[in-house]
Amino acid sequence: PVNVALAIEVASIDHISEVNMEYTMTVFLHQSWRDDRLSYNHTNETLGLDSRFVDKLWLPDTFIVNAKSAWFHDVTVENKLIRLQPDGVILYSIRITSTVACDMDLSKYPMDEQECMLDLESCKG
């Protein structure tokens, strides 16, 4: 198994719908893992890789469990960032907008507070 570190950076909360029990948000999903086959020692510099290189890499199969819909941003180019460190650590970031289910308790409306989760898993998890 490959250990993958995950971090979510919330760019925006775009919409909240109490009627549909959902919210829409844009996030940067940052993932990193080590692939020793890609390590190098001719420089200590981190290499920025072209997003077309992604097709040649193993990528985690992370998905949003409670997503109703999700899409990657690709205007004007795919919003992906790939960096390779000398020790073989790959940093992979993508921008995603997703509409996510949230079971809201509106019994105290208009003084209610909601806690909406963003559940991430691996398909092989």
TrEMBL record:
GO MF term set: extracellular ligand-gated monoatomic ion channel activity; transmembrane signaling receptor activity
Keyword line: Ion channel, Ion transport, Membrane, Synapse, Transport
Domain Neurotransmitter-gated ion-channel ligand-binding as annotated: residue spans: 1-123
GO cellular component: synaptic membrane
InterPro entries: Neur_chan_lig-bd, Neur_chan_lig-bd_sf, Neur_channel, Neurotransmitter_ion_chnl_CS
Record-linked Pfam families: Neur_chan_LBD
Record-stated family: Belongs to the ligand-gated ion channel (TC 1.A.9) family.
Main location: membrane
Signal peptide span: none
Membrane keyword on record: yes
Entry keyword annotation includes RNA-binding: no
UniProt organism field: Anhinga rufa
Designated name of the protein: GBRD protein
Cellular localization per UniProt: Synaptic cell membrane
PANTHER family: NEUROTRANSMITTER GATED ION CHANNEL (PTHR18945)
Membrane topology classification: Multi-pass membrane protein
